[in-house]
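Hello forum,

I keep getting stuck at the same step: I have a sequence, I want structure tokens, and every attempt I make locally crashes halfway through. Rather than fight my setup again tonight, could one of you with a working pipeline run this one for me? It's a single chain of 305 residues.
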Amino acid sequence: MFYIIRKVFILFITLFLVSLVVFCAFHIIPGDPAMLILGTEVSPEKLESLRSELGTDKPLFFQYMHWVKGTLHGDFGMSLKYRKSVSLLMQNRISVTFILGLASFFIVAAIGLPLGILAGYKKTGIVHQVIILFSMIGISIPGFFLSVLIIWCFGLTLHLFVPGEYEGMQLVFPAVAIALPQVAVLVKYVSSSVMEEYSKTYVRTARSRGNSEIRILFCHVLKNSLVSVIPLIGMVTGSIFSGSIIVEQVFSISGIGRLLISSVTSRDFPLTQTIVLYIAFTIVLVNFSVDILIQLIDPRIRLKH
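Reply #2:
Ran it on my machine without issues. Output:
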């Protein structure tokens, strides 16, 4: 119980620090939001009036407290670029990014886990070498290049989808672009974990008792190796979000990632801060859930805490 309370405390401290860093980072960057909206030729009176309306004429401490208070009440302010509610803008984009991320995560798990287990099981054969080779290639290919390659191959050449139009099953193609690098990471990690378990004494003991290799794999090795893979879920989630930012831009998908790039380039502080905080909150929450899950399923963790 103390372990869970401590993790909840760390969760809130992390979110507070993230919000502070995000707010300070975007207010240290040179640029006046009021001037960006009205232009450089505006009169000083109008400039001061808009600064007062936006609240940027107040000290940073009061601006931060006002933003935190609004965030806790679900009021994220107005977008400087779109002149609309930040909540409304994000509401229209979150579902697209969520579906894209969920599809990517499913692809990562459905392909990465079996291939990683197979590579670890066939640790001395050609199958292991081929899988590891492809995983190294997958890790090395940048996300934007992979996106361009998929658009050119499946969109422009094979005409399986229309670039710029993504509805229903067509989201599979950008999801694959996000997932493949993470599949490669998962394969490498799972195969290493499986091979490490095979080198332990209990595997030799299981063989000496006449257990088949398949039984050893599914009843002993996987049970222990996959527990050590669970923390990777948090890292994969973060990578899916960062990959989504690039892929959404290349595929012209109207999701959170594309909105983030647009808000950063236009110095739209309220929108940028909210999106970064949302992404950070999601990643921290996933890592928190993973920590609790490991603590519940692994008795060794319970004994340590």
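The mean pLDDT is 83. If your local run keeps crashing, start a new thread with the error log.
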